[in-house]
């Protein structure tokens, strides 16, 4: 092993320097053989320590998984008592015997539960050796009647792995043709590529006999042949004969024996180690191409960064000026791309920048307007009060000519228009928040220069806040302009005559009772929205919550099994439907809204309302906006009077009621015109005064503000993290080059041994 240790250490060191582990996954070496064949002695020779239990009969009664780990200090530890380190290997033997007895008892019982032992030493490679119980056929002591099959299954479990080398140990004083170890190896390794025959106890053969023909691979050939070894006898072990002396005695035996001296260099434990070393070397060489490919791809990915850093001088003022200009320019480009949209660097996880602002303009803001607009009960009550207050003590009568709808109309319209201020200002606040978030996202690329990032954020955010005041003033001015003159001659305004006609419709087929909301709906066949929603309030007895594919048109809401829209589950007409919010459940992470019938009818089966669940509040708001387009509006709470009782907003006076209806129609028409105008002007005003202005500011003035804010050198000071990252990249680059050089050295300094040619091993029949 001494030859391989420096080679593997070089590889490990090269990979450690780049913060990675070198996964060589060296093969396991499993020792298989009959009882007292000398398996444990063969293993001990690898470790160079005397630590395994010895004796006659079945000694190894549990598999011992021995992990050898290269370390500067020498000690052992067991998996079942990790906290204890064993430095005396006699204690290791005693612990193996005690742990074996603990599970199997003291009367020759066996167990498939392995003992895991780790040996740390400067004289070993990172290898796994497995000492398996000896093959036996006759049960003794507490052993079960099927002991032969239990041991066989246990051994097969370990030697079936393709990455395990099999040492099939057979004593020389036993008939090789009946070797169970070789037969089992033949089952799992029919080509003989990973089986090495080991012949032990050559010194115990009857006088006048030898194993020459076997060791020369002539009598009963194996593809990888046989290696003879001479282990210590029980007398040697009892006499504390150390392993080095035993190896010297083994060498002397092969050199002095007339049948083996001509092949002494191919016999003995050192040669067995050499053969195994060559197998491990072959394995390492087979692993090198994939390791080299991995390192080369990492090196290639670092080339561009390293090219920038090679001639990098942190304190060069020319570099700082150039970097500042590039950073500010890139910030402006990134900001514009996030607002205007672009094909590169698209966020696929959530809406951002311009897409979110667009959603505010065309979904959130219209929804806020409609929520405010359709408070029907309040509006009718206010109209009623306005008419009564205008008449004062006089009787309300259309016939007396004292009914002046224009005064009541103007009072109500102005009150409705004033209510627009709140959603308009809220819209500005939402856009500002999105702009500031966009600025923060764009400055993330300035992370290497924390002072520059901080100043850029501060300057641009301050400018946005300044523009906020200008934008809000302009929007309030737009609303004040609308309040200053009520244009009843507007081409879209229905006028007094049409309002009366709507109040008292001619009973013809063309004027069947149709709510104003329905008149404003889109063509019935147009699909407004499609998407997945969960019906949240179906009882568990009826299947529980379930997700469906919903299709919303101007006339109905349908849901299907899936997006192919072949299997329709239900179609719900939109007449008399409204929307209300539903509080999120304690354990639910869904956001919910409900659809119900204003006439207290069941909406779906026995449900008075359908609760529809989405994954986010944004999805809920978006669906609500879609329902608004279809003419389904949000519910409003019934107002209460000062005494807390619900007030009847409909007058018992039919004349007053007709007047209220007339003005209601006029207000509805004019407020619709105002809303249309505001919905059009709001995005334009915000875009002009805030968004486009901020883009121009970044492109034309930001650099000047940065120069005036402080010393350029302090602005372009690198963060400690950036300097560390640069050093790490350069260190990684040089470590990768060194690792590739070491791999190249290993490739040239080691040689692969070709696989021996196949032999006629038909004599060996699988067990």
Automatic annotation (TrEMBL):
<dbReference type="InterPro" id="IPR030381">
    <property type="entry name" value="G_DYNAMIN_dom"/>
</dbReference>
<feature type="domain" description="PH">
    <location>
        <begin position="526"/>
        <end position="632"/>
    </location>
</feature>
<dbReference type="GO" id="GO:0005905">
    <property type="term" value="C:clathrin-coated pit"/>
</dbReference>
<dbReference type="GO" id="GO:0005814">
    <property type="term" value="C:centriole"/>
</dbReference>
<keyword id="KW-0254">Endocytosis</keyword>
<dbReference type="GO" id="GO:0008017">
    <property type="term" value="F:microtubule binding"/>
</dbReference>
<dbReference type="InterPro" id="IPR001849">
    <property type="entry name" value="PH_domain"/>
</dbReference>
<dbReference type="GO" id="GO:0014069">
    <property type="term" value="C:postsynaptic density"/>
</dbReference>
<dbReference type="GO" id="GO:0030496">
    <property type="term" value="C:midbody"/>
</dbReference>
<dbReference type="Pfam" id="PF00169">
    <property type="entry name" value="PH"/>
</dbReference>
<dbReference type="GO" id="GO:0030136">
    <property type="term" value="C:clathrin-coated vesicle"/>
</dbReference>
<keyword id="KW-0770">Synapse</keyword>
<dbReference type="InterPro" id="IPR020850">
    <property type="entry name" value="GED_dom"/>
</dbReference>
<keyword id="KW-0505">Motor protein</keyword>
<comment type="similarity">
    <text>Belongs to the TRAFAC class dynamin-like GTPase superfamily. Dynamin/Fzo/YdjA family.</text>
</comment>
<dbReference type="GO" id="GO:0055037">
    <property type="term" value="C:recycling endosome"/>
</dbReference>
<dbReference type="GO" id="GO:0001931">
    <property type="term" value="C:uropod"/>
</dbReference>
<dbReference type="GO" id="GO:0031623">
    <property type="term" value="P:receptor internalization"/>
</dbReference>
<dbReference type="GO" id="GO:0030670">
    <property type="term" value="C:phagocytic vesicle membrane"/>
</dbReference>
<keyword id="KW-0967">Endosome</keyword>
<keyword id="KW-0965">Cell junction</keyword>
<dbReference type="GO" id="GO:0002102">
    <property type="term" value="C:podosome"/>
</dbReference>
<dbReference type="InterPro" id="IPR045063">
    <property type="entry name" value="Dynamin_N"/>
</dbReference>
<dbReference type="GO" id="GO:0003924">
    <property type="term" value="F:GTPase activity"/>
</dbReference>
<keyword id="KW-0007">Acetylation</keyword>
<dbReference type="GO" id="GO:0001891">
    <property type="term" value="C:phagocytic cup"/>
</dbReference>
<dbReference type="InterPro" id="IPR003130">
    <property type="entry name" value="GED"/>
</dbReference>
<dbReference type="InterPro" id="IPR027417">
    <property type="entry name" value="P-loop_NTPase"/>
</dbReference>
<dbReference type="InterPro" id="IPR001401">
    <property type="entry name" value="Dynamin_GTPase"/>
</dbReference>
<keyword id="KW-0378">Hydrolase</keyword>
<keyword id="KW-0963">Cytoplasm</keyword>
<dbReference type="InterPro" id="IPR000375">
    <property type="entry name" value="Dynamin_stalk"/>
</dbReference>
<keyword id="KW-0168">Coated pit</keyword>
<keyword id="KW-0597">Phosphoprotein</keyword>
<keyword id="KW-0966">Cell projection</keyword>
<dbReference type="GO" id="GO:0005874">
    <property type="term" value="C:microtubule"/>
</dbReference>
<dbReference type="InterPro" id="IPR011993">
    <property type="entry name" value="PH-like_dom_sf"/>
</dbReference>
<keyword id="KW-0968">Cytoplasmic vesicle</keyword>
<dbReference type="GO" id="GO:0043005">
    <property type="term" value="C:neuron projection"/>
</dbReference>
<dbReference type="InterPro" id="IPR022812">
    <property type="entry name" value="Dynamin"/>
</dbReference>
<dbReference type="GO" id="GO:0016185">
    <property type="term" value="P:synaptic vesicle budding from presynaptic endocytic zone membrane"/>
</dbReference>
<keyword id="KW-0581">Phagocytosis</keyword>
């Amino acid at each position: 092993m001494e030859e391989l240790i420096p080679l593997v250490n070089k590889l490990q060191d090269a990979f450690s320097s780049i913060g990675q582990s070198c996964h060589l996954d060296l093969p396991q070496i499993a020792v298989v053989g009959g009882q007292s064949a000398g398996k444990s002695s063969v293993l001990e020779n690898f470790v160079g320590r005397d630590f395994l239990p010895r004796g006659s009969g079945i000694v190894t009664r549990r598999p011992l998984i021995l992990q050898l780990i290269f370390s500067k200090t020498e000690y052992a530890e067991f998996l079942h008592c990790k906290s204890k380190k064993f430095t005396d290997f006699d204690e290791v033997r005693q612990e193996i015997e005690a742990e074996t007895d603990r599970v199997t008892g003291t009367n020759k019982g066996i167990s498939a539960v392995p003992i895991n032992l780790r040996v740390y030493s400067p004289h070993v490679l990172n290898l796994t050796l497995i000492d398996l119980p000896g093959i036996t056929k006759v049960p003794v002591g507490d052993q079960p009647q099927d002991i032969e099959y239990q041991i066989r299954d246990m051994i097969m479990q370990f030697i079936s792995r393709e990455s395990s080398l099999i040492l099939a140990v057979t004593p020389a004083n036993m008939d090789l043709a009946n070797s169970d170890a070789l037969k089992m190896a033949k089952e799992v390794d029919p080509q003989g590529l990973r089986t090495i025959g080991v012949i032990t106890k050559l010194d115990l053969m009857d006088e006048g006999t030898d194993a020459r023909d076997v060791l020369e691979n002539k009598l009963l050939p194996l593809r990888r042949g046989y290696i003879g070894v001479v282990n210590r006898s029980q007398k040697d072990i009892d006499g504390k004969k150390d392993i080095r002396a035993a190896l010297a005695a083994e060498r002397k035996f092969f050199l002095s024996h007339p049948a083996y001296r001509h092949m002494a260099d191919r016999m003995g434990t050192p040669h067995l180690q050499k053969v195994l070393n060559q197998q491990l070397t072959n394995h390492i060489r087979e692993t090198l191409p994939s390791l080299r490919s991995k390192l080369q791809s990492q090196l290639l990915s670092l080339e561009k960064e390293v090219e920038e850093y090679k001639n990098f001088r942190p304190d060069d003022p020319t570099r700082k000026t150039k970097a500042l200009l590039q950073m500010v320019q890139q910030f402006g480009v990134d900001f514009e791309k996030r607002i205007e949209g672009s094909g590169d660097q698209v966020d696929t996880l959530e809406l951002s920048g311009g897409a979110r602002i667009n959603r505010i303009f065309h979904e959130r803001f219209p929804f806020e307007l409609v929520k405010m607009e359709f408070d029907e009960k309040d509006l009718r009550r206010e109209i009623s009060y306005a008419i009564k207050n205008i008449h004062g003590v006089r009787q309300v009568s259309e016939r007396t000519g004292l009914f002046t709808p224009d005064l009541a109309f103007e009072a109500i319209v102005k009150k409705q228009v004033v209510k627009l201020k709140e959603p308009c200002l809220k819209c500005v606040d939402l856009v500002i928040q999105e702009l500031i978030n966009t600025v923060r996202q764009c400055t993330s690329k300035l992370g290497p220069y924390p002072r520059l990032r901080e100043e850029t954020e501060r300057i641009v955010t301050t400018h946005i806040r300044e523009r906020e005041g200008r934008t809000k003033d302009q929007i309030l001015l737009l609303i004040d302009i609308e309040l200053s003159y009520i244009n009843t001659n507007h081409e879209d305004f229905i006028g007094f005559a049409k309002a009366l006609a709507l109040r008292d419709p001619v009973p013809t087929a063309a004027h069947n009772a149709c709510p104003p909301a329905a008149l404003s709906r889109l063509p019935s066949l147009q699909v407004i929205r499609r998407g997945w929603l969960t019906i949240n309030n179906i009882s568990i007895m009826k299947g529980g919550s379930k997700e469906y594919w919903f299709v919303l048109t101007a006339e109905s809401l349908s849901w299907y099994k899936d997006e192919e829209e072949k299997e329709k589950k239900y179609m719900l007409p939109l007449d008399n439907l409204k929307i209300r919010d539903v509080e999120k459940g304690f354990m639910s992470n869904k956001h919910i809204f409900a659809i119900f019938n204003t006439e207290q009818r069941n909406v779906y089966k026995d449900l008075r309302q359908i609760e529809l669940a989405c994954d986010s509040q944004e999805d809920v708001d978006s669906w609500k906006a879609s329902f608004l387009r279809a003419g389904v509006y949000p519910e409003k709470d019934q107002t209460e009077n000062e005494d807390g009782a619900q007030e009847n907003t409909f007058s018992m006076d039919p004349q007053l009621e007709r007047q209220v209806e007339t003005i209601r129609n006029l207000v509805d028409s004019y407020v619709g015109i105002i809303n249309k105008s505001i919905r059009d002007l709001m995005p334009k005003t915000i875009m002009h005064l805030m968004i486009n202005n901020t883009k121009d500011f970044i492109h034309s003035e930001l650099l000047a503000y940065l120069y005036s804010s402080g010393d350029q050198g302090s602005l372009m000071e690198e963060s400690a993290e950036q300097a560390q990252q640069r050093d790490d990249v350069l260190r990684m680059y040089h470590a990768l080059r060194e690792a590739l050089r070491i791999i190249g050295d290993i490739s040239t300094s080691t040689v692969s041994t070709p696989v021996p040619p196949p032999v006629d091993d038909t004599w060996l029949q699988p067990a």
